[in-house]
Amino acid sequence: MPLYKLPRGTLDILPAEQVYWEYVKHKAIALCQLYGYQRLDTPAFEDFNLFARSMGEGTDIVDKEMYTLEDKSGKKMSLRPEGTAPICRAYLEHGLYNLPQPVRLYYFATVFRYERPQAGRYRQHYQFGFEAIGDADPALDAEIISMTWHFCLSLGLKGLCLQLNSIGCKVCRPHYLENLKRHYSACLTQLCPDCKARLIRNPLRLLDCKKKSCQEAIETAPKSINYLCQECKAHFESIQRYLELLGIPFKVSHRLVRGLDYYTRTVFEIQSPGEGIQNALGGGGRYDELIEELGGKSTAAVGFAAGMERIILNLKRQNVSIPALPRPSIFIAYLGDEAKAEAIKLAFKLRQAGIAAITAMGGRSLKAQLRQANTFGTSYSVIIGEDEVKSQTVALRNMTTKEQKTIPSTKLEELFRRD
Ligand code: HAM
Fold this sequence. Notes:
By secondary structure, the protein is of the alpha+beta class. It has 2 domains: 15-172 and 228-317, Bira Bifunctional Protein, Domain 2 (BirA Bifunctional Protein, domain 2, 2-Layer Sandwich), CATH 3.30.930; 330-418, Anticodon-binding domain (Rossmann fold), CATH 3.40.50.800. The protein is 38% helix and 21% strand. The strands form 3 sheets. The chain has an 8-stranded mixed beta sheet with strand order 1-5-6-11-10-9-7-8, sandwiched between helices. Strands 13-12-14-15-16 form a 5-stranded mixed beta sheet, sandwiched between helices. A 3-stranded antiparallel beta sheet has the order 2-4-3. A hairpin with an 8-residue loop joins β9 and β10 (280-286). The chain is elongated, with a radius of gyration of 28 Å. The chain starts with 17 loop residues before the first helix and ends with a helix. 37% of the residues are buried. The site of histidyl-adenosine monophosphate has 27 residues, from β6, β10, β11 and α11.
């Protein structure tokens, strides 16, 4: 029995699963290249206050879900619970504001949240995100949203729903929140205990509650889009016009508020069909105050992040066919010590010529070696025995037809070279 187990809420991504991960990463990188986004990687841990300041105390993530520790110098550090704040920190730290704006960036990041694990919800998950920093143009919101849509379609996912909302800015949101609180105060007795606490600490999140008892209050709640100031209203209308122009279907949802405090104006989410948290494939929005909050000049920005595990879960659920990963072309089997030395030499030579080859190991029977070749899925096996060593040849076996012929070993490179 193994002594240790996988930590709760984490995943081992086994070789058989990697085909999905490679597929999604490949599509993500191709997308970013198409839209002119450049990669920026940040560390897995940062100063606790970076996250506390950006996501807001009073959010579940900051209050309950961060993995925080004091390092040996007594500094409070947190494992990254999301990717946007670190990107903004790096934007400021490396003076990316000196570049022509907006700066378009993307990242892959392991993200840590101490949540209750369930299907599609982990304590360590992996995000693909992109951020455009340095412009308030609604066309940039539309670019980020269209990229999100394009990404999901390019993966082959079907039946997606794009939800959109505007939660206003620091000018118009306080007035909206007052009205929201007034509405909720009038139906306090129906609310779940969490919502009673949200009413004081984070009223926007009242709209996000999934409990049955709170649904009526949500349905009858005032809608943020009816309280937008002129600028926010015009901004929201422009985004919708751009999306219509691009033929991207969306649904305005007044319940959509998102779980992080830094959002201003635009918020959006992409969902796959069906119920449950695993359908929230990704989400994003505008965060025009975040860079200033982190010590920079007032800088508008907008971005999105998707959960890779949820995307993969939905690819499997929708039976999307995924191209196989490239496999070595040749498996090299041998019989005897002399042949083994030849096999090792041949494999090295083939690999140097750019031909992927894999050798048998140990002293197994030929039958066992060929069985292993089958599990690797190589199309051909090369068999080297005593006779082949003497005659500088190999037996080349087609693993599908089982046909076998003897050829000079020097011919192999020529036969398998792709170009
Ligand atoms: P988020 O909605 O908290 O946004 O996370 C983005 C996505 O990560 C979610 O839609 C979901 O697919 C996935 N996700 C979140 N938590 C978990 C979990 N515990 N297990 C598995 N997957 C999860 C953000 O993090 C923002 N930084 C997005 C953003 C970028 N906004 C602007 N720019």
